[in-house]
Structure formats: structure tokens, C-alpha cells
């Protein structure tokens, strides 16, 4: 998004030197990443930027602005030292991952607006994550007053979207994945792996479903902890119980006897799968990135990786800013198959280039699909030379499937900026939705596949391939019927004596026209029946898409695999790189897609 003021347009006519000083504001985790990019593109020239890691660096910029016109600062530092920045004169401000300014009344946004920089540029892959209000905040930041008040903007969205789109086109340069030149990029393979819940997880999930009283947000958090590992939930409940004897004590009582978690790998379906996946990756000679939303989950995975003798790199909210790029650089340079990079979705899920790895595992999902998409894009970046394999782990029949379905519904509906006008917070869930979220569906391979009513039965075939196979089978049946009919007619002819045969021939000669008319009439009837026969399954497929499952149509671009189809499942496991070790992991279902964007 670029603000084009009248002054800027007039200056363009008078000469090319419009910008002499530039403020670049970025997330903390990307400060050194931007430095690395400047190093890359100014390799044989004087370094043109000041990296503000401390307040004094902002003061240093004032004396070096002519030779070093770029000042790179984190959002946090920009907000804390806004007075120092206000004393400087900047011609343009660049806000990387600018969706951070989505709150129109937020302190960060207000601080940057107060700098009164005439030209403003926002870089973001997700300009609207939840609703139009957030999008308005970004538009109003780059083009103040151009879109009126928030109320006027809402009315324009509903009453005159065509005019709104024209105004948006004037200030937004949009580049979709299809516009990016990916000819130099390697293949990208994406997988959604559905893992069977352990016995403990099933039992405790049922308890959570029955324990519907109290704070729904807390219960959702409990359910998400459980699907990662029951020990995480138990430790959390124990800590809360120690602070307040009454809080969630009934749920804590469910952990008893056989359901008492010991912290073992087998107590979590996803963790069991992850162990074998890591072994496979190491045998393939490829590094891996593991992403999670939770520090506690990363702690658990780190202990596991140490036990498996992996070299661990880690970046989360506790990692010092100056240490982040160092960890990224070391990981990318070493490319050791025993290296594993543990990444927090929120701290490192945007902007980082982790091209030292070619395998990425998203261990748990976020309600907001934009966060997951950003995190999963860390390895398929400029500079990557190996085919990338990206795996998302889902515990079958649990809250994670509900989150996945909600994500698909959001990304499947395209409005102004590839998002849906529905929030992601707990306040947007109706009572029926909450009940559905906490319902554990045990008798299913994949509830998501059930809902999209795909006719593939987990065979791995696309709909067009199934249609072609049906056509081939039908043609074969027609040929077989013709052959059988010819043989039957031949047998009947042998039993007919010469006199009867001669009389039939004579009769046919006299009634030739009648016979031909009758045959034509029969052909038309048969054709009509055949046409109806073909139309029925087509209508069925069409109905499946136009019902409430239409929002899951995004999955029609993926191949669906079930272990029931042993040959195709074995082929899938080999191609996905998951067949290198003997395993007793129970994957119940899988989605697969290969893409170049």
C-alpha cells in the first residue's frame, strides 16, 4: 500500500530525487534479516543503513543520514522512542508486516502517524485478517481521510463495492502468489496428516466436552493443550489448582489412574508421529523446522529432540533480538541433517528465511489461517534449492479439525483481500458452534473429509480422474455387452432351421423400413436412459458442492488418502518421505497437494 500525495506527484515532474531519508519499521525478529538483505544487495558498496538496536543509534542516524539514508528500527523501539524519531526528518516510512497497524486506535499506529511522514508504504501479505475495520486502518494510514470515517467506509463496502475497489486500486499494489516469478523456485509439497488420538487424549477430551461450564475460552485452550500432549494440560491445571483450589478441580480429577500422563511420547498421537518423521528426515539427509504456537510445547519438543540427539536451534519470544539472526544464519549455513530449528509462530512466523531446511512441520494450528500460512512459508523462500515438504499435523476428530475446517472456510471465501468478514475471537462463536467445537468425533478417519462429501473414498484420485475412470469402465461394459449379445445371437442362429431363417430374411426384406424406424426409436430411448444415468451422479456431485459443504471446496484441489487403500497409501508414504523407518504410528488420513506458489 502506497500513499501518493499531491506533493509527491508534483515533485515527480520536477526531478527523480524524491526520497533522501527513509524510516524502515519492522518486527523485532526481522531487524537483522533486513540488515542481511542490505548486505546482499549492497555487497560491493558502502552499507547504506543504520540499524537501531539502542536509542543512541537513532541519534547517530541524524549525523549519517546523507551517506546512510536508511534507518531500520523495530516496532517496539519506534513506539518507545517516538520523540527521538519525531526530531528527525523522513521522506518516507516503510512498515514491514504492516498488518501490525490493523488497530485504528492502537498506540503503535498512533505513534507512527504522529511522525507526520508524507509518504507511507505498508508491506504485508495479510492486509485483512478478520474484518473490514482492520483493512480500513491500513488504508487510512497510507491515505489519511481518502476513505472517510470508519462508518463511511463500512457503508461503502456494503452499498458501493465497485467504487471502493477503484479507490483501493489507486493506493494498493497487489501481487498474488500467481504473479510471483517462481520459475527458479523448487517444488513445494504440502501435506495435512491426521493422527489418531491416544487413549488418554480420547478420555480427557470427552471429559472436557462434558465440562462445558465456565470460561469457554479457557476450555478451548485446554483442548488445544490436550491434543499437543495431555501432560501439558495436566501441568497447567495443577498450577491453576495450586493457586486456586476450586478452579477447574473437577477437570483435574479426570487425570487419575490410567489417564494420569507420564509425559511419554505414546500419550500424544502427534508427538508419536513427529518422532518417526524426524527419524525419516535425518535418514533422507534433510534439516527440519518445527513450528508451534506455544512455548511449553516447544519446550517439550526440545527435550525430545535432545533425547534423539539432534542439534537444536530455537527462536521464540524470549530469544534476544541480537541473537535471532545469528541462529538463523548458523542454521542456514550448516545444513546438517541432525539440525532442527524450533520456531514460535508469533515470534518467528513472519519474514524469516530458513532455507537451510527443506522439511517443515506445523505441530499445532492457529485460529487465524494467515498466521499458519506465514509460518509454513519459512522454508520455501528465495535461495531455497531443494524441494520443500510442509506437513501440518491434526489430531483426528478433535478441536484441531474444527480449527482446520474454519480456516478452510475463511480462505475459501474471496472478498476484497482474500479474507472473510468474520472474527477469530471466541466472542464470534455462537453456542451451537461452541458445542460443535468441543464434540469429539471418534468414529471417523477424517471428519473434514466427511464434511466435504468427496466421492474419492480416500483413494488419492481427483474428481476428473474418477470421471475418466468411470467413462473407461462404461465403455468397457458397453463393449462387453455387445460381445455377449453377438455370441448369444450366434447361438440362437445355429438353432434356427434353414426354412425359418429364409422366412425371417423374407420378412425383413418386406418390412425393411418398419424395422429401421423401430431401431431408431429404440436407440433414442436407450440414449435418453443412458443420458439420465450419467446425469444422476453429476447432479449428486453438484449438490454436494452447493450445500453447506461448499466452503470446503478448497479441498477439491488436494488428493485424499486413506490407509484402507493399501497400495495408494504405501505409494503416498514413500513419496512424502515418511517410509524410511518402521513405524507403528496410526495416521488415519492425509491430504496432499503439490504447488508452485
TrEMBL record:
Residues 464-542 are annotated as: Disordered. Residues 529-539 have a biased composition (Basic and acidic residues). GO terms for cellular component: nucleus. PROSITE patterns: HELICASE_ATP_BIND_1, HELICASE_CTER. The keyword Hydrolase applies. InterPro entries: Helicase_ATP-bd (IPR014001), Helicase_C-like (IPR001650), P-loop_NTPase (IPR027417), SNF2-like_sf (IPR038718), SNF2/RAD54-like_C (IPR049730), SNF2_N (IPR000330), SNF2_RAD54_helicase_repair (IPR050496). Keywords: Cell cycle, Cell division, Hydrolase, Mitosis. This is DNA repair and recombination protein RAD54-like.
Amino acid at each position: 500500500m502506497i500513499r501518493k500525495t499531491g506533493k509527491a506527484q508534483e515533485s515527480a515532474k520536477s526531478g527523480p530525487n524524491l526520497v533522501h531519508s527513509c524510516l524502515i519499521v519492522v518486527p523485532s525478529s526481522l531487524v537483522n534479516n533486513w540488515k542481511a538483505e542490505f548486505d546482499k544487495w549492497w555487497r560491493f558498496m558502502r552499507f547504506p543503513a543504520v540499524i537501531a538496536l539502542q536509542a543512541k543509534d537513532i541519534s547517530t542516524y541524524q549525523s549519517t543520514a546523507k551517506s546512510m539514508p536508511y534507518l531500520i528500527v523495530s516496532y517496539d523501539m519506534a513506539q518507545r522512542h517516538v520523540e527521538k524519531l519525531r526530531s528527525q526528518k523522513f521522506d518516507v516510512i516503510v512498515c514491514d508486516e504492516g498488518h501490525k497497524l490493523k488497530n485504528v486506535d492502537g498506540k503503535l499506529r498512533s505513534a507512527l502517524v504522529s511522525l507526520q511522514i508524507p509518504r507511507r508504504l505498508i508491506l504485508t501479505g495479510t492486509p485483512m485478517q478478520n474484518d473490514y475495520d482492520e483493512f480500513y486502518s491500513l488504508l487510512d494510514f497510507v491515505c489519511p481521510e481518502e476513505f472517510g470515517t470508519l462508518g463511511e467506509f463500512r457503508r461503502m463496502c456494503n452499498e458501493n463495492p465497485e467504487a471502493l475497489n477503484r479507490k483501493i486500486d489507486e493506493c494498493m499494489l497487489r501481487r498474488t502468489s500467481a504473479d510471483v516469478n517462481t520459475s527458479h523456485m523448487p517444488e513445494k509439497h504440502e501435506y495435512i496428516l491426521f493422527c489418531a488420538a491416544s487413549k488418554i487424549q480420547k478420555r480427557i477430551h470427552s471429559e472436557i466436552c462434558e465440562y462445558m461450564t465456565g470460561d469457554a475460552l479457557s476450555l478451548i485452550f485446554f483442548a488445544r493443550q490436550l491434543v499437543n500432549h495431555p501432560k501439558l494440560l495436566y501441568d497447567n491445571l495443577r498450577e491453576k489448582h495450586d493457586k486456586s483450589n476450586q478452579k477447574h478441580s473437577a477437570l483435574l480429577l479426570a487425570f487419575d489412574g490410567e489417564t494420569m500422563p507420564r509425559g511419554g511420547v505414546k500419550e500424544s498421537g502427534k508427538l508419536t508421529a513427529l518422532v518417526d518423521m524426524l527419524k525419516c528426515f535425518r535418514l533422507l539427509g534433510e534439516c527440519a523446522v518445527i513450528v508451534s504456537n506455544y512455548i511449553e510445547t516447544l519446550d517439550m519438543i526440545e527435550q525430545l529432540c535432545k533425547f534423539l540427539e539432534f542439534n537444536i536451534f530455537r527462536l521464540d519470544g524470549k530469544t534476544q533480538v541480537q541473537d535471532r539472526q545469528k541462529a538463523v544464519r548458523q542454521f542456514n549455513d550448516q545444513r546438517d541433517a541432525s539440525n532442527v530449528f524450533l520456531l514460535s509462530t508469533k515470534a518467528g512466523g513472519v519474514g524469516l528465511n530458513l532455507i537451510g531446511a527443506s522439511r517443515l512441520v506445523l505441530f499445532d494450528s492457529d485460529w487465524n489461517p494467515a498466521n499458519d500460512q506465514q509460518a509454513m512459508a519459512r522454508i520455501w523462500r528465495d535461495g531455497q534449492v531443494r524441494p520443500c515438504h510442509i506437513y501440518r499435523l491434526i489430531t483426528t476428530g478433535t478441536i484441531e479439525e474444527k480449527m482446520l475446517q474454519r480456516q478452510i472456510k475463511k480462505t475459501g471465501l474471496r472478498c476484497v483481500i482474500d479474507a472473510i468478514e468474520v472474527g477469530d475471537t471466541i466472542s464470534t462463536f455462537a453456542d451451537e458452534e461452541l458445542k460443535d467445537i468441543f464434540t469429539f468425533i471418534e468414529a471417523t478417519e477424517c471428519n473434514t473429509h466427511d464434511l466435504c462429501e468427496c466421492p474419492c473414498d480416500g483413494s488419492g484420485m481427483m474428481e476428473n480422474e474418477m470421471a475418466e475412470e468411470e467413462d473407461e469402465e462404461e465403455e468397457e461394459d458397453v463393449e462387453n455387452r455387445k460381445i455377449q449379445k453377438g455370441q448369444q445371437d450366434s447361438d440362437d442362429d445355429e438353432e434356427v432351421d434353414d426354412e425359418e431363417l429364409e422366412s425371417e430374411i423374407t420378412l425383413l426384406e418386406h418390412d425393411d423400413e418398419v424395422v429401421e424406424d423401430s431401431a431408431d426409436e429404440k436407440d433414442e430411448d436407450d440414449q435418453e436412459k443412458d443420458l439420465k444415468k450419467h446425469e444422476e451422479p453429476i447432479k449428486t456431485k453438484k449438490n454436494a458442492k452447493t450445500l453447506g459443504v461448499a466452503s470446503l471446496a478448497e479441498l477439491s484441489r488436494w488428493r485424499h488418502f486413506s490407509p484402507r487403500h493399501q497400495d495408494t497409501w504405501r505409494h503416498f508414504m514413500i513419496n512424502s518421505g515418511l517410509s524410511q523407518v518402521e513405524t507403528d504410528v496410526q495416521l488415519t488420513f492425509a491430504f496432499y497437494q503439490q504447488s508452485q506458489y
